[in-house]
Amino acid sequence: MDDAQGTLARLPERAFWPQVRWQAGIFGAYFGQFVKTRLAYRMDFLVDTLGVLASIGIQLAVLTTLFSKVSALQGWSFEQVLFIYGFSLVPLGLFNLVSVNLYGFSDAYIIEGKFDRVLLRPVNPLAQVLCESFNISGLNEIALGLVVTVWAGIRLGLQPGALDVLALLVLAPTAALVYLGVFLAITAVSFWFEDRMGIAPPVYNVIRFSRYPLTIYSLPVRILLTFVLPFAWVAYYPATWFVGGADLKFVAALTPLVGLVVFGGAVLVWRRGVRNYTSTGT
Amino acid sequence: MSGAAATRLDPWRRSAAATAGLYLHFVRLAFLKFLAYRLRYYTGVISYTIFVAGYYYLYRALYASRAPGPGGVAEMGGLTVGEMITYVAVGWIGRSFYFNNIGRDLMHQVREGQIAMQLIKPYDVQSVMMFEAAGEAVFRLVMFTVPITVVIVPLFGVHLPPQPVLLGWTVLSFTLSLVVYSQLNFLVGCLAFHMKNIDGVLRAKMVSGDFLAGVIVPFSFFPEWFQRVVEWLPFQAIGYLPVMIYLGKRPGDELWQALLVQAGWAVGLWLAGRVAFRRSLRQVVVQGG
What we know:
Number of domains of chain B: 1
Number of domains of chain A: 1
Oligomer: heterodimer
Structural class of chain B: mainly alpha
Radius of gyration of chain B: 21 Å
Structural class of chain A: mainly alpha
Shape of chain B: elongated
Strand content of chain B: under 5%
Number of helices of chain B: 12
Largest sheet of chain A: none
Distance between the termini of chain B: 27 Å
Distance between the termini of chain A: 36 Å
Strand content of chain A: under 5%
Helix content of chain B: over 70%
Largest interface: A-B, 37 and 35 residues
Number of helices of chain A: 14
Order of helices and strands of chain B: HHHHHHHHHHHH
């Protein structure tokens, strides 16, 4: 422990990789501290697990009921739709884990001036904001999403090879980057404007479109979800790696690229915003 | 205390008209309070349109995947695709009206200790919260439900009710939904007297409430046993019954039965709330501050 803290307390080196290692260590410690504070409220975590279980259970009940009326939804079987739904929970959980601070960013960091403190530290400001607190509920979504995905995969008789496991490990986090990019860009806008309308909630509500196969939507909606508000890339496109035809594998493989482009674009907006930031002085 | 103020404040000396004036004042206050936050509701219109759009595409795809019935029209749970989309749209339009958070408000008042200030005032806390919910509903009706209706009805081709008079009954039915929904929230809020944190309970209620109210999937889609169960729960009196009235699926005496079931739940939950609130007060401890 002393050694770890000693490493963290040491002044950062200038070289790139030692910097990254040092910063990653800091945020590992952030997470550890956060978990310790949460351990005081074990009941909350239990209740939260039950809440996530209930909402997934209801979604499964809805799917089961709808599929009791038809054998396939526009060519997609129950198990395929279930797989897409289960998969969608993994990037969503990863995103929910770190996104709590983005929602209150304008109020807590800009209006109340918490961002001054962030800028005074020699660590990446964005990473500090994302890691200041976590939404542990995300871990529940990841775990239960994997259970649903694996169960649907077994029912589908999938035979995953090493490449598929690798694909899951790459596709899920890069799909989460799409979420993070979209909401980071929205958050960064508050460096210029005070958002009194709340544009994040309607955008967040569009996420529900990503649970179902994209082909059930009309062409304009598909274009919107692929290119404008790219939530088709958080579940449907990456999941088609596993449940779509061979022709869709190529599209699924584009997910990391889309994730990096969306997130990279958002980081550029964020950086401009940080440069534009003037403290309220509070 | 001067005579006029005394007649207004002492509950046992207050005239019926003064009492009505007092509680109606809370309708106005709540309306004005929400008017200050009206900007938030503009994006809310977009959110509700997104909710309905999601189900619109889902149900269209579902009906398109179903073999047509005897009349050449695909039907599920007694509804055609047009009726199904109307079902979802009217359900969400109604929800935009009756929705409120008084359970959470009560929880905050208990947690922060403001409930003490409520208790020393000469009024009935449960009634005040109900009238505030009514004020919020009036606000939502004008600033939220009407714009949502104007957007959603033409966009998704929502049907009118088979007879125009059903529109009036639907409005009455959703007004009863408001009472049932608010009283259910109040009852859940009373749990805050007994538990430190009811966030989880409130979220579970939020998640399961829309489902059990039939806002997402109509009950007629479900297996028989499930339909029997939900008939005995208050949630159907919130979302399902008003929409079935709108669609003309409650003809003749069934219309009265549906409204009576709603009124019964409204009264029953009100009484349950009274009992729960009084019992909870026996053990409330407010820290000074």
